[in-house]
Amino acid sequence: MKKKIMAILLLLALLASFGGCAAYRDVPHDVGKRAYTVAEYRTTMQYYEDFKVLQITDLHLGIETDLAKQLGIVENMVRTEAPDLVILTGDNFMYATKGVVKALASTLNAVCGEVTATRGGRLCKFTLTFGNHDNQGDYPRYYINEVISSYATADGKEIADGKYAAFVDYEDDNLFGLANFYIDLVDDRTKSADAVDVKYRLHIIDSNSYHFMGPDYDYDVMHDEQLAHAMHIFEQATADKSYIGLAFFHIPFPEYGEAYEDYRNAENPKEFGQGEYLEHVLHGYENNGSYAALRAAGIVGFFCGHDHINYGDFLYHANGEVAERAILSYGVKSTNQLYHDKNMMGYKTVTLRDLTVAEFLTAENIHENYNNFTGGYANYEND
Question: Which residue among 8, 156, 310, 315 is least packed, with the fewest CB closer than 10 Å?
Fold first, then answer.
């Protein structure tokens, strides 16, 4: 269903570009520019026991959106959960204007500041990665990055500067995509990379948008230099490599389908996870080994969006050794924009506790610490 809808939307976007309206702007990033060091892609947050991540996904805010209503829903999610970090996993916009982009960023910054002010200095921050729709708007390709970056500041200066974005990106770097940075959750933000104890490392990765094959298209995949970048982070970022690595992106891997089949066919599905699928896994055009490459780079938990009527959290290769396992997690669609199921809208929270990798990679961890709120919102009742 999604690909049929997308084919129509892409055709309309191309027609609009010939008519002088907002054009389809998803063009490849020029690769081969400046090489930045691994350290220059790093930002940190103080780790606290029960560090809460709020995942919001597939907002699809655009020119026809009732923006006040949808931004009110986003604010309500953040106020309700009072998380340490809000992560938007792509398709934040669809046929939006610069004003829509600014409104979401300013809303997130304000509500994160509001939550921070109630917690004695314990920060609430926000970040995002990109989906296949985000650059289908009336703005240059790098515009979203510029807006979000305007709300980022040096580690430790958030409250003084009133800026709560956790975001690092460079328009002139040699990596494909728009955001390929990482957030270290550490015991002490003032320690050097050689001395710091990293509890969790959160990779924010652009899974890119479309791969065109003549008149047809499919979804893209993470590119080789992005995967190599993740490995360089693992090898070079800090002396401590005992952390739990997580990745946040938009388009799922083919392995998500395998994980769901294990869950669906299990005699006791709870041993494999939780959730519901109402459509096929709409992964990239090929399996280029992204999952295996990121798993080798110390990442054991994967969080995506994209498929609006799927959600859940599943152990992959659950019966194997710890070195073979991972958690594959789908976010819950957070608005009623584009297609959706009215009973599957909401958000996900993940509580990060001080666990070993072996303790993290268990069904018990999923059931205790991964919550999918799927009840929808009263604001949608008349839609």
Answer: 8
Tokens of 252: 């799922």
Tokens of 211: 């791969």
Taking the C-alpha atoms of residue 147 and residue 352, their distance in angstroms, rounded to an integer, is 29
Contact between residue 55 and residue 348 where contact means Cβ atoms under 8 Å apart = yes
Higher pLDDT, 115 or 13: 115
* CATH T-level assignment (fold) for domain 37-380: Purple Acid Phosphatase; chain A, domain 2 (3.60.21)
- The Cβ of residue 374 has, within 10 Å, a number of other Cβ atoms equal to 17
**CA quadruple 169, 175, 180, 185: dihedral sign:** negative
Residue that has been written with the tokens 């980022």 in this structure? 152
Q: Quick one: pLDDT at residue 33?
A: 84
Amino acid at residue number 247: A
| Spatial CA neighbour of 9 closest among 25, 27, 28, 24 | 24
What is the signed CA dihedral for 254, 257, 259, 260, rounded to 10 degrees? Answer: 160
The bridge status of strand 310-316 relative to strand 273-277 is antiparallel
Three-class DSSP category at 234:
helix
State the Cα–Cα distance between residues 332 and 330, nearest whole angstrom: 7
Alpha helices in 126-187 (DSSP H): 143-149, 158-161
Helix/strand/coil for 247? strand
Domain spans of the chain, in order of start: 37-380
Tell me which residue of 355, 295, 354 sits closest to 323, measured CA to CA: 295
Q: What is the pLDDT of residues 75-97, one digit of tens each?
A: 999 999 999 999 999 999 999 99
Question: Quick check: helix, strand or coil at residue 228?
Answer: helix
Average pLDDT over the chain, rounded to an integer: 91
Q: SS3 string of 260-297?
A: HHHHHHCCCHHHCEEEEECCCCCCCCCCCCHHHHHHHC
H/E element, 201: strand 198-205
Q: What is the signed CA dihedral for 317, 320, 325, 328, rounded to 10 degrees?
A: 20
Specify the pTM: 0.93
